[in-house]
Amino acid sequence: MKKDLATVCSEYGVNMRFNELACLFSPTGSCMISKKSVIFFILFSAIGVMSVFAIGDNASSLSDLLVHLDARFLLLALIGVPLLDWFVAGLRMWLFTSAVCPTVPYMACVRNCAIGSFMCSVTPSQTGGGIAQIWVLTQEGAKTGHAITVLLMTFLSSLMFYLVGALFLWFASDYITFPATINQLVFAVAVMVFALVAGGLLLALLFPGSVIRLLVLFGNKLGEGSRIKTYLKRFVDWLKDSSVASRSIMKQHKIRFFFSIVLSIVIFMNKFFAAYLAARALGLEVPLEQVLIIQMFLSILLYFMPTPGGSGGAEIGSAMLMASLIPETLLAAHTIIWRSALAYLAILVGGLLFFFYLNKGRGSSRLFNNMLNQFIQIPRKSDILSLFLSNLVSDKTY
Q1: Would you list the DSSP string of 281-342?
Q2: Any idea of the CA torsion for 322, 324, 326, 330, to the nearest 10 degrees?
Q3: Alpha helix segments (H runs only) across 173-222
Q4: What residues in the chain have per-residue pLDDT under 70?
């Protein structure tokens, strides 16, 4: 008998408690992170910024900097980029919440995306965003199974963006002028590896039968105590449930899924565009094409940074890659503006919204608050699969 979407979503974890959500992608149990994660983010970010100062001659005086500062582009970077990110990402999320849990309003989705940015920034490898967003949706009245399905669909639309974008860059690499700081071959290899992973995961979700059989066959050849076998078992269980939910919603809501991919393009291009706005805010004329290539390459690298929010690595990586376009005296200023647009302000606004939800005293907020004070269960960094899944499931800001 054909199952309708509501039945599929209900079966997909509707009775799951939040502490089970937190280890959804973790095959070995919990990995404890305390509130020190925020401190670590600040510490690594400070180290990153100081390292940027050490990269080149950053002796430009404050008066010289203010003379060349363009307030219009600065406001666009610091306010326009995060607002557009949250509102468009919220619209993408609302496309699916309006289908499976219509009681969740659009503005709740916008707030949820801001909270997701905050949690990505203060959890190792940016893995906490998806978990927090599922919880917030339940606080707005969605069933847990519906919330998981919504995040799964935004995950799939992000996968589609990266897959199509990576393939486009691969085929267009011969016609693109690469920045001096990026080796064309290294870039092409990184893009293709990412495309293969994204494409493989997408195919596994849409056509899980053969993939599951291969994984089970491979797992049976491993010993009972094998850690890899534990990972495979958890992934197979996740794949069985999520593939049913994803195929069901894609069949019933093809138009919504198509528009979610279009919105994903806007979301990620807005993030990449922030570096260009930061340069224009400093009075610099830089080639937009090269900036976007650098940001795409950097985003791929930062997916696997183990520090909270990619802190430290993001600042140093941006400075090194943008060094061919930004004068050494302005590298630190450019990095600070860029990171403020994508991370620092997200922590401030998203953090305030997050703790507002914690203090509302509704439903499982007390449970979440207790978990926050003690520990939050999220995937371990050593679990490469859960790292990749959790990064893409959330509307992350690197």
Answers
A1: HTT----HHHHHHHHHHHHHHHTT--SBTTTTHHHHHHHHHHTTTS-GGGHHHHHHHHHIII
A2: 90
A3: 184-206, 208-220
A4: 1-67, 124-127, 172-174, 176-184, 223-226, 241-242, 245-246, 303-313, 360-398
- Which domain range does residue 40 map to? 25-393
How confident is the model over 56-98, as pLDDT tens digits? 555 455 556 666 788 899 999 999 999 999 999 999 999 999 8
Q: Phi and psi (nearest 5°) for 202?
A: -65, -45
Least Cα distance to 379 among 252, 230, 269, 210 occurs for 230
Q: Compute the Cα dihedral for 14, 20, 26, 29 and give only its sign.
A: negative
Helix (H) or strand (E) holding 238: helix 227-252
- φ/ψ (deg, to 5) at 142: -75, 145
- This prediction has a pTM of 0.73
Q: Is residue 14 part of a domain?
A: no
The pair of structure tokens assigned to 389 is 């899944």
Work out how many domains the chain is built from and give that number: 1
